[in-house]
Input
Amino acid sequence: MQEAEPPFPRRHLTPWAFATAFLAALTTLALIGCPTATPTTTSVPAFPDATGKLSFSFPVDEEITPVDLPYATGGSGKLTYSLHPDAPPGLTLNADTRELSGAPEVEGRYELTYRASDANGRSDELPITIVIDPPNSIRSIVAAVTVGDTAGAVKFAGLPEPGGGPSVEVSGTRVFVAGGTVFLDVAPEPGAAVDKLLVSLGAETLGYYEVDVTGAAAPYRLLGQIRFDVDPAVESVCVAIAAVGAGGAVGPAAECHTVVQGPVEFGDVQITVSWDSVADLDLHVVDATGEEIYYGRRVARSGGVLDFQSHCDPPRPFGNEHVAWSQGTPPRGGYVVRVNHWENCGAAQTNYVVNVYNYGRVSTFSGTFSGAGGHGGFGDGTEVVRFEVSDGPAPRSRSISARYRGSGDQVFALNGAGENLDDTVVTVDLGDASAEVHVIATNTTSSERSPEVRSLSRLEAEAKGLQPSAQDDFEPAPRPALSEPAARLQWITEFNHSVQLSRRASGASAQAQAQAQTAVAEGDRFTFRDLEDQGAVEIPATARRVVTDGPVTAALWVADNDWGPGCSGAGPCVNQQMVDAMADRFLRPGSGNDIYEWVTAIFGAPWGPHPYSDVIPPAAANDINILLYDIDRDGAPAPGECRAVGYFWAVHNFLQDPDFPLSEISSERLIFFMDAPWFAIPQGPTWEVTDRHPSGAMSALAQELQHMIHFYQKPILRRTASEVWLNEMAGELAEDFIADKTMVPGPRGVAYDDPTAGSAGNRRGRLPIYNLFNDVQVTTWAGTISNYAVNYALGAYLARTYGGAELFAEIVQSDRVGVDAINTALHNLGHDVTFGQVLADWAVATLLSDNTAAPAPYRYNPGTWTSSHIDGDEFRLGSINLYHYRWDPPEVVSDCIGPDLAGRSSQEGPYLHSLRTLSDRIQPPHSNTYATLGRRTGTVRFLVSAEPDNRITVVVKE
Amino acid sequence: MRHGVTGAGAVLALAAGVLLACASDADQSAAPEAPAEAQEMVAVTGRVVATGSDPFVILVIVTGANEQYELVGEQADPLWDLQQRQVTVRGRIVQQALGPGFPAQLEVDSHVLAGRDG
Output
């Protein structure tokens, strides 16, 4: 195990006070319709209610843009569609797909019936008008022209020759889009009386609209409705308008008013908004899935796209916006259209027209804005129309709304049942309350799939060319990298294959087993071996204390060069007082009074019966050895340095075998190793066992003993793998369980007799590093100091929430491994929860650890002991408040925290990303990643995409 | 990230072993056999986990039948980043098992993720 030296004295923080109880609330919006292709109901077919009339016009002799006619719902069996009495010559309606296509051959106006029939002959009908115009008709571009309530009539002829009528001037829209509206203001010469306006598109287009303006006030506001299926190849049109005077005299056509086409896509559902000023209006369309398409989110998962936008743009007044389902089938269900007056840009008043195209049916709505405009984004705007689309796929994504109750802390599990979040808009309504909003991303497996969480307000700001707010854009403090662990494993593997040691007869023998594990007496000498980068090194040592408790014996060995005053090692040196103190804590006569008894009570025996011939015999079970020596020969640590405080290596449980060079390291006994210099560091002028370093070593005895036990309980006894992360977690918890018994702070880092979470500014134990690296994956192992910290943090949460010592007894004494061992242990103790949910709950508990009233399963910090019992022994665990822990950059470059500390400040409490860096830095596999949106009021929105194995939780803290 | 074994290929080639049905139950009396080059390429599918206790950690692939192989060689390095994932590893057995906790060593030649995990 590794320990890091805290470099700086404590500083103090004011603890936060928080209120009580939690509520989880989840409101979903999902609009679900009925399938139409293969109806299962026995109802009569029916076309759903819809606004707009079914009317089309196409030029003769030209291939039309295929149009999907409306669908019907209900009926029995498959629905078929037809036109009656027949489609115009040259056009064909596909009875299954409802697609109208072809090239019309005969000009004319066709008043038809569109019919949907089911298998039983029942049907519903809609009237439909199809007009076949001459080639290059003005109606192929402009569907209608109106002045006020008066619609113009098409005349298929050229504009009449001028005959002394009044002249006019034309101004207005310069850019049109398919389905949009062109606003033109036609001003006749002063004093002129005008009866009609004649509107043409120049010589290349046949015909003109004639509009009666008698009685209307000049200048005349003329609206031209552009067809939704206008040919995108038409780059621009030249609008030429002439007036007809009161006496019938035709005036000269005004100078060509050029209007350029803005490129948009065609779709079965389209919505446009067009307006008549320099203002910035925004089109918002909420589709059937609840997704809102607007400037802050231009592409919906359903395929809807905001493909044309206009901004505050005085040089190009009269704007348009357009949404079309050009990339997919519009989902069935209800749609909402809103228009938002973002900014007036100097315009006193803005008139707008909204046109909706719904499978061939066009409907038009209008309105007026005045005032400055209110900016705004998601959810804003004036509702213009709701309409229904009854075909298409079922809604896939959704919106989620959460309302904060106004006080206390509150948790919202956005997909607690493992739902798929598909670019879902999450709205947290804080009302008038001021509260911190945090987002947790939990990876419940070790998959590479990462959630994506994006701030909607940031996207909106970017779309408008504005600076994101500081809350959206803050950069969390940089973190140092974790250092690569020592390459000990490489030495081991190479040694195993290359070092030539004395060879014996192949295979371990019963005789060798019998010879192993002879009784140890004080004063005995033995030469142990360790591996370093140059190969095996010998460690002559002497047994300095042998203690017995019933059948169990513990022999404490000390390397000769670390022993006694002025020892030849790097120092400090170990003496008899120290050895006696360790022996007294580890094993002493009597029951329930030593580390060995406590740890074995929880985790099980360190050795015992087994079927193997190549490991030490079962009879060795009661002979424990501890060797104190200078691990890695690196002496005492400098501030900030890491040290191996102790280790257990299972190779010592094997008998030596020349076929396996590694086994030649074995001392053929139950043994673990402790760092002598660390243990011998005094806190003051004289060494006391309660000093920081010796007390840490005492704690580590429990950890290394647990590793010894783990090896027996898993690979030996149950032939299962011993996953490191679980083994190390159990080791950390061994320390935690006995901290108050051995009178050491343990990994919690709080005074052993303090059941509360201690005080702010705590720099001891594992948890300052957990705060700094709380997004490290739990179920993997990289050998860094953060792995110990995160695994302890999870183990501490598990033990305080799900049964303490009993839980860990179940985990270790189990034939299950890894996550499965935890799940099985939880199940065996009657807890209906699985590891993935535990991870998510643990993260919430982390953020709420300053709340002693937090309910289960978020209770890291009940403010008192959490007790459990095994075999009559009580094991007490103190409370944990992560906000009490503080990490300070080491004064010197550490060998476990990377050298890139420039600019790094202290870390107090859990490390929190911004939403932006959360997305940038979620590098799977992680377990939990935390982001904060800061302290907010009102409404907070963000976008989440997450697959079922990624849980997203929102925590609101008062 | 700990990357366990590097540069050991040449040395490993001198070592030998046999492919065992259950690595953790290997017969410890079996003598080393042919050099690595002569060993048959094997493919093993299972979950990649780090086992042991720090600092004596090895990377192991555990099959559905609880067969275990320590993954060694330079090509095993990337597998440290795939802990808890289902992986198919191709390689050669270069050392038989020492015993429980010390499974047979499989020198990795290549690997692929075995579908989506989770």
In short: The first helix of chain B runs from residue 9 to 14. Chain B touches chain A through 46 residues (CB under 8 Å). The CA atoms of residues 50 and 56 of chain B lie 10 Å apart.
